[in-house]
Amino acid sequence: MARVQRRNMAHVQGLRCRECGREYEIAPVYTCEWCFGPLEVTYDYAAVAAAVSREQIAAGPASIWRYADLLPVDRGHAVDLGAGFTPLVRADRLAAALGLGEVWVKNDTLNPTNSFKDRVASVALSKALEFGFKTAACASTGNLANSVAAHAARAGLRSFVFIPSNLERAKVVTTAVYGGNVVAIEGNYDDVNRLCAELAGTYRWAFVNVNVRPFYAEGSKTLAYETAEQLGWETPDHVVVPVASGSLLTKIRKGFDELHQVGLLDHAPNVRVSGAQALGCSPVATAWREGSDTIRPVKPDTIAKSLAIGNPADGYFALDAVRQTEGGLAAVSDGEVVEGIRLLARTEGIFAETAGGVTVASLKRLADEGVVTPDERVVLYITGLGLKTLDAVEAEPTATIRPTIDAFHEAFDPDHIDEE
Amino acid sequence: MARVQRRNMAHVQGLRCRECGREYEIAPVYTCEWCFGPLEVTYDYAAVAAAVSREQIAAGPASIWRYADLLPVDRGHAVDLGAGFTPLVRADRLAAALGLGEVWVKNDTLNPTNSFKDRVASVALSKALEFGFKTAACASTGNLANSVAAHAARAGLRSFVFIPSNLERAKVVTTAVYGGNVVAIEGNYDDVNRLCAELAGTYRWAFVNVNVRPFYAEGSKTLAYETAEQLGWETPDHVVVPVASGSLLTKIRKGFDELHQVGLLDHAPNVRVSGAQALGCSPVATAWREGSDTIRPVKPDTIAKSLAIGNPADGYFALDAVRQTEGGLAAVSDGEVVEGIRLLARTEGIFAETAGGVTVASLKRLADEGVVTPDERVVLYITGLGLKTLDAVEAEPTATIRPTIDAFHEAFDPDHIDEE
User: Fold this and answer.
1) CA–CA separation, B414 vs B417, rounded Å?
2) CA-to-CA distance for B366 and B359, rounded, in angstroms?
3) Which residue is closest to B166 within chain A, CA to CA?
4) Residues of B in contact with A89 (CB under 8 A)
5) What are A241-264's pLDDT values in tens digits?
6) pLDDT tens, residue by residue, A119-130
7) Which residues, in sequence order, are bridge partners of residue B185?
8) Which CATH class is domain A88-113+219-392?
9) CATH 3.40.640.10 fits B80-420, yes or no
10) How many Cα atoms within 13 Å fall on the side-chain side of residue B262?
């Protein structure tokens, strides 16, 4: 085991500024001292290439840790509740409804706390253990709060999670139940995030999306790895990804490229990357539409609270990835979000939270506009479960009756019952 | 593919009455014409043994369909949303809290609709397609309703699901959102079930827990298969299973035995099987305590609605399995149920619905009574997600504050913050 740990750790080289390229040692830091640019983990891809194979990955655990050689933490420290390796299901009925060809849904509702945030929290808390932190903390729109609280409980770490006070009740309960500290902030996510940046300077805590952010963010790459593995080590032609901070979109793109770099793909990937936002919080889509490089912060107002980041940290990089890959960006109304939730549930049996509704509605918009085309193999990232935003959809029983056949036939005409 | 389908179908021999042993052809029937006993699927285990291997299973899909050779439907018809192959996580912190040794949690909250019912619904709806049914139906305490509605949507089948009208709102929304018919019945589950038995005689529908029940129930065996595979093809010493109809408990036991019968285990399994019930609906535990063979129906009154079957169809068989394996049965109060939910969340980061609280609290009770012992390898089956029964637990933010460090320090004394 010790040998495996050392070998795995050796793949991580250090941290590098995404703006100016300056390099740093591995440590819980996240900003370049010179230009204040964000830091990113670098790997020795030649060493990874020598260590990994399709067979070795297939023999690994059914979680993100099957890709440990491409993650910035050794597997010996893994805080593993089973995040990742979620189903990729072919969605022919959804494709038909949208006039598209081959559509797949990556169903990330099936993570330990029912959102893709378990991927990043699992990596971040594992790294926090490795760094010797005793407390995990985060700013969250809800899903990350759930995940950090659950993974901290599992690891025996203390936790402090900071959320906007207007969150859905489900996201509060599913955070507080794990026994850590939940602090509700009178403000929106951007206010919460600002406070957390200050607190990260005050307390020696592992703030997963502040001082541990470079490691945390790497967890999202696993969505690309799994997609390719589940497609038989091929890549899709087009992916549609919800945009909050923008980090998920850029990391999914990076993940496909890395797979080729370490020899797991036969061909260089050529994946068009499109982004999905809610109209009530669409700073990246707005910059896209206006042809601008500047992401102007907005004040969020949408039912898609998990995407409600008005000042997205990686917005520029997401925009850049969309441009480079010739994807697109859509911004959809709250009404379209609800319709998107219903369409996915009705056609494929998958119940997504509002963010998923944004993604489905954006796919519809991009298909209508001809940005996504019927000849493409499309993958849709559904990142959170509908049970977390239950109040967004109205769904009542068809009928409420006494327990008799007569009562049933009063409610459903027996002559037409097989048409119901 | 056609060849595989034929080969797989050949493993199913027919149906046999569990009371009198009379045999029947494969058909959508569930009761013996002679003695009214329940029918069960029979297999050609020699043919299964020749077809399966640990390697072949490991190379299969990450769902219950990796065990297709041991299921009563050919994989070509599989309605597969990704049910099964859920994490089995070692629960050292829970074990320590209960004074036990090696405890594992089978986390079946991570199924497509977040309960183990996806295992049975996936098999039942696949068989319904094979039989040529156009409509899927069920009586449900909620979880099966979710699952049948979702799998029917995925398969493009019509659906009629019947639920008690007092169900948790989450379970109603997560059924209705898939677009089928949801009929709320003014009565308890036993009333719903009686009506469905009548309707099954009237309409040519695949009633998953009536006329398709023998096939449906086989889905539960996969919990035993996965447990053994995930323990490196070994069996636990003791399992604790929630009891509603009793079918889950008996099928888990059957699953372990079958694995040995087809050569996948090196040794004959010796698994003690214990059952968990809520005090407000504990007919099987009552018969156990009284040393009786008769399960007296009760009128359920408990927050654990998914276990609230007062007249359990397989109660006798569950009782028999517990006796034969020298397990035990516990009945726990609603207060203990809530404590059980909190204990599992706090120690392992897993948020279970009330049924899971019943199971954890029952394990605690059985450990206190010395029925489950510290030298045993124990597996706990957690069958549904806490988001479905959110109102059962109170969980509020620790504090609600303005977005400033001063406000944070008003709520959390900086001198004691690292003790929070």
Assistant:
1) 5
2) 10
3) A400
4) 80-82
5) 999 999 999 999 999 999 999 999
6) 999 999 999 999
7) A401, B164
8) alpha beta
9) no
10) 24
